[in-house]
């Protein structure tokens, strides 16, 4: 089951190529984005490393079980309620954002409400399944989509339209101090490991997770490509004109002898799959937290349907109040709060693990 840990990390890295991370970096491209990129790698990896090393000292236990054994009841309840909201919002923002992207770039004539409803149904049906089934679903999506994503990235890097001089211009601003927005965005690509708060239940006892050193290497590549490739295609100034820079970048590429000439359609299909996978992972964790918060109901078959219905209904209603700019502002604020929350989560697990071994 160790491979699923890497799946959790890498699927989060991939999902954030399209949404808010590139736009946040591009918005602050002259105001510390490069320094934020440099700092995000060690900060994100340190949080991941200490979390993984600590939570593996609780074999077969998720975060709710750890809290139940080692903290007072009121602390456990407060943590669970707070992180239910955090994980729910992660899935909700992705669903609403991709519904808007689908409407704009695939079928402008269809109602965005219909798209949100369709995405909510798909994500909700998978999120309520067992943790093992959710991981298997994620694995299938990764195996079928990642090779094509790697090919798209290769085409982008080697395309004659890619202007590396523009990338070098951005690199000259590396000494500018980063903003909290850019640090939060940069470290978010590592955040997939936090899903171990539930999936640690499935890891084999006393099984070490090898090759952790590969994660910062892949993370560096993901951050560099997600930030600099749009700059290379559109220039240092024009790149800031796009709401979703990577969508516009993919539409700049062609496959001359492909069945589908416009890379945009291939790119949209791939990243819709990846993003929906990230959403059902987040909602699954949220559902499991709710079950532990109300344990008297968790074994009843209808209870997960009730939770999914509430999550989906709230997402559907909230989608009426967002447009592209307000969703970006909300997503940025969420990433900022998320970094504080992630640090608090890691410190909590580290402290409880040290207390256990004392």
TrEMBL record:
<feature type="transmembrane region" description="Helical">
    <location>
        <begin position="185"/>
        <end position="203"/>
    </location>
</feature>
<feature type="transmembrane region" description="Helical">
    <location>
        <begin position="210"/>
        <end position="233"/>
    </location>
</feature>
<feature type="transmembrane region" description="Helical">
    <location>
        <begin position="334"/>
        <end position="353"/>
    </location>
</feature>
<keyword id="KW-0472">Membrane</keyword>
<feature type="transmembrane region" description="Helical">
    <location>
        <begin position="5"/>
        <end position="26"/>
    </location>
</feature>
<feature type="transmembrane region" description="Helical">
    <location>
        <begin position="263"/>
        <end position="281"/>
    </location>
</feature>
<dbReference type="InterPro" id="IPR004761">
    <property type="entry name" value="Spore_GerAB"/>
</dbReference>
<keyword id="KW-0812">Transmembrane</keyword>
<feature type="transmembrane region" description="Helical">
    <location>
        <begin position="110"/>
        <end position="127"/>
    </location>
</feature>
<feature type="transmembrane region" description="Helical">
    <location>
        <begin position="302"/>
        <end position="322"/>
    </location>
</feature>
<dbReference type="Pfam" id="PF03845">
    <property type="entry name" value="Spore_permease"/>
</dbReference>
<feature type="transmembrane region" description="Helical">
    <location>
        <begin position="134"/>
        <end position="154"/>
    </location>
</feature>
<keyword id="KW-1133">Transmembrane helix</keyword>
<protein>
    <submittedName>
        <fullName>Uncharacterized protein</fullName>
    </submittedName>
</protein>
<feature type="transmembrane region" description="Helical">
    <location>
        <begin position="73"/>
        <end position="98"/>
    </location>
</feature>
<feature type="transmembrane region" description="Helical">
    <location>
        <begin position="32"/>
        <end position="52"/>
    </location>
</feature>
């Amino acid at each position: 089951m160790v491979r699923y840990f890497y799946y959790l990390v890498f699927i989060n890295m991939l999902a954030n190529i399209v949404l808010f991370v590139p736009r946040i970096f591009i918005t602050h491209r002259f105001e510390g984005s490069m320094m934020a990129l440099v700092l995000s790698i060690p900060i994100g990896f340190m949080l991941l490393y200490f979390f993984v090393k600590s939570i593996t000292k609780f074999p077969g236990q998720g975060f709710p079980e750890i809290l139940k054994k080692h903290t007072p009841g009121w602390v456990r309840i407060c943590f669970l309620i707070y992180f239910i909201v955090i994980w729910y919002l992660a899935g909700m923002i992705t669903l609403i954002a991709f519904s808007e992207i689908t409407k704009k770039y695939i079928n402008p004539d269809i109602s965005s409400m219909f798209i949100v409803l369709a995405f909510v149904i798909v994500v909700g049906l998978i999120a309520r399944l067992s943790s093992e089934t959710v991981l298997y679903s994620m694995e299938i999506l990764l195996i079928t989509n990642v090779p094509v994503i790697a090919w798209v990235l290769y085409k982008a890097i080697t395309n004659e339209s890619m202007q590396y001089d523009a990338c070098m211009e951005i690199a000259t601003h590396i000494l500018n101090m980063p903003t909290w927005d850019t640090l939060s965005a940069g470290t978010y690509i590592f955040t997939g490991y936090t899903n171990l708060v539930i999936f640690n239940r499935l890891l084999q006892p006393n099984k070490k997770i090898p090759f952790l050193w590969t994660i910062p290497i892949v993370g560096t590549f993901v951050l560099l490509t997600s930030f600099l490739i749009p700059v290379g295609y559109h220039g240092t100034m024009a790149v800031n004109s796009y709401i979703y820079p990577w969508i516009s970048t993919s539409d700049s590429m062609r496959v001359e002898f492909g069945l589908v000439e416009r890379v945009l359609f291939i790119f949209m299909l791939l990243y819709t799959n990846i993003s929906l996978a990230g959403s059902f992972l987040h909602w699954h964790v949220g559902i499991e937290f709710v079950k532990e918060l109300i344990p008297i109901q968790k074994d009843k078959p209808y209870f997960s349907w009730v939770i999914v219905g509430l999550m989906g209904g709230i997402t559907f209603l909230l989608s009426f109040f967002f447009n592209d700019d307000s969703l970006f502002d909300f997503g940025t604020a969420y990433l900022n709060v998320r970094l504080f929350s992630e640090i608090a989560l890691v410190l909590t697990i580290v402290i409880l693990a040290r207390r256990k071994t004392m």
